[in-house]
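User: Good morning. I'm curious how zinc ion would be positioned relative to this chain. Could you predict the structure with it bound?
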Amino acid sequence: MRIVIISDVHANLTALEAVLSHAEAGGTIDALWCLGDTVGYGAQPRESLARLQELGTLMIAGNHDQASTGKISTEEFNPIAATAAHWTMDRLRAADRKYLDALPEVLTQDKFTLVHGTLHWPIWGYLTSHEASLTHLERQETPFSLVGHTHIPALVVEQPKEPRKCSLSNLEDGARVELSHERRMVINPGSVGQPRDGDPRTAYAILNTNSETVTVHRVEYNIEASQRLIEEAGLPRWLAQRLALGQ
Ligand code: ZN
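Assistant: Good morning! Here's the predicted structure, ligand included:
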């Protein structure tokens, strides 16, 4: 099985299409898993959601998905994110909001647990520290978990025989993670629609269940096209500018 793992599409359909083309060029896609924040920030929330639905994507909820349906308030959001969330809510159809509203926060698929943030704090937790990684691992009942939310491709590996220790590192383009039978792992595929590690290329990962590997890919896409749509939509300009910076 060749499973495409994506997260944080953030209504950037141009980036999503680039990921899908790149993944398809590498072979058959058997499944598509999305780790939340399909909408919010970008100008094509309806289109991005429809595209993922059409592909039968397995989806979970992110904070931006829930904010765009009113399930959570935008009080915790910065002003730009809140403006984008309200704009997104108006753009979505009732059926879209209903669909996003019903998405689970945590989902288990065979040896993998899928969650947007962390298992400690599914919608809001950032897995960016050893502390957060350890509290996440304490709740992880499968050998592997997949998270998003930070918009940075990363890997956490539990140290064998020392459950209170783990390593945390970022994953570069082409990084290939061998799935271990002894150490539990957490993998973040990065963000499709709004990378934040200084590399503006879209990010995703491929899980190959035969070779038991996860490989991270970075792909160039037409950033200007996504920026233009954000500006035409009247969304805050920073949301367009940051795409070129990878921030
Ligand atoms: Zn996000």
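The radius of gyration is 17 Å. Residues 8, 10, 37, 62, 64, 149, 151 surround zinc ion (CB under 6 Å).
Let me know if you'd like a different ligand tried.
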